Amino acid sequence: MGTRQTAPPPAMPAERPPLARKAVPVTSRVHARVGLLGNPSDGFFGKTISLSLENFYAEVTLTPQPRGRGISFKPHAVHDRCQFSSLEDLFDRVESAGYYGGVRLLMAACKRFYQHCQKRGRTLPAADDFVLSYDTTIPRQAGLSGSSAIACAALNCLCSHYGVAAEEIALPERPNLVLSVEQELGITAGLQDRVIQVYGGLVYMDFDRSTMKRDGHGLYTPLPPALLPRLWLIYADNPSDSGRVHSDVKRRWAEGDPEVREKMELVAACAEEGKEALISGDWVRLAQLMDRNFDLRREMFGDAALGELNLRMVATARSVGAAAKFTGSGGAIVALCPLGEQQEELLRDVCVAEGFSIEEIKCAPPTSEQG
Ligand SMILES: Nc1ncnc2c1ncn2[C@@H]1O[C@H](COP(=O)(O)OP(=O)(O)O)[C@@H](O)[C@H]1O
Ligand SMILES: O=C(O)[C@H]1O[C@H](OP(=O)(O)O)[C@H](O)[C@@H](O)[C@@H]1O
Ligand SMILES: [Mg+2]
């Protein structure tokens, strides 16, 4: 991670006051997300429409410990496996899910939280005695933002534990802090996941370059989730590490590759037109935009990066006339049947026949409306 030389942040005052109130366990639940339109242009000053996916979530718990115990992280039995029955078992696990689980996200969240407070001269109470643990129902590395759900939930716990009120981190700025956690780990990531995981519900996002440069964040417009048609989530058990999928395109974009620049703008336009289609309830137009979004991604990334199984998922949905695109970087797709229930029946049949999981998408309410 390149770092810019800047003036050292003010050191935390040596004597930190004890936590004013009795420290109690804190749990934060953050939902997965579906990029409905415009992704991955969010990483390229584009536009997206994203929804908070109530079907899956990550949950982080901060459990205070007696003073002097310090900070520890509880590995997840499944996602942070350190026990294998054989070399073959280890090989299979690493091949499918990579070397890393979520503990590194918890650690990076702590580091970035501390840096954020230091940079703002925000003194934290002396409360550095806790265990951070997590669980997640989000299919692993399925392009449903499992990574940032864990990071976002960890930051929520830390803010609550140390008494950093929500208004101390302006809402539009909070996604940047979540994103910095994954950037800390070199994980390819754009802002859309974090914005929707902070706002919840359904949000139209404009990452216009001048706005981003001026304000450090984009323009985020919550939309009523009731605008959404019935949508389907289809996924396979094939983790795809986001880092692999984005690497080539980001470099080509940064080098000004005219084809990538033009296509990424066309992807962003899918979100802009999609917002009008949602508001007018034009599902045929919405379906066309979803298909166009995926086709543009495929032209930019190429089939090898997208992966045979992901391409087969999209082709299976389209075989019955449904619109289909990636929810994120690969591993799960979102489908829309503009012709209604009969088409949905056909979609379910072909997905089951191919061994894919399919379920109706439930959009979680805006965070402001959640208890
Ligand atoms: N289900 C999970 N459990 C533990 N760690 C996860 C999980 N999903 C993602 N991660 C962590 O986030 C990193 C990036 O995952 P990524 O491919 O971005 O997942 P996603 O597409 O769900 O965001 C992984 O290398 C891993 O460290
Ligand atoms: O490629 C995409 O659509 C998204 O990929 C990443 O999200 P992921 O959860 O890993 O699928 C990235 O973080 C997003 O910004 C992209 O839009
Ligand atoms: Mg990710």
UniProtKB/TrEMBL annotation:
The GHMP kinase C-terminal domain, residue ranges: 276-350
Gene3D superfamilies in the record: 3.30.230.120
Signal sequence extent: none
Keywords assigned by UniProt, alphabetized: ATP-binding, Carbohydrate metabolism, Kinase, Magnesium, Manganese, Metal-binding, Nucleotide-binding, Transferase
Enzyme class: transferase
The EC number(s) this enzyme carries: 2.7.1.43
GHMP kinase N-terminal domain segment(s): 111-201
The reaction(s) this protein catalyses: D-glucuronate + ATP = 1-phospho-alpha-D-glucuronate + ADP + H(+)
GO MF: ATP binding; glucuronokinase activity; metal ion binding
Cofactor: Mg(2+); Mn(2+)
Function description: Sugar-1-kinase with a strict substrate specificity for D-glucuronic acid and ATP. Involved in the biosynthesis of UDP-glucuronic acid (UDP-GlcA), providing nucleotide sugars for cell-wall polymers. May be also involved in a salvage pathway for glucuronic acid.
Protein known as: glucuronokinase
Native source organism of the sequence: Raphidocelis subcapitata
Organism phylogeny: Eukaryota, Viridiplantae, Chlorophyta, core chlorophytes, Chlorophyceae
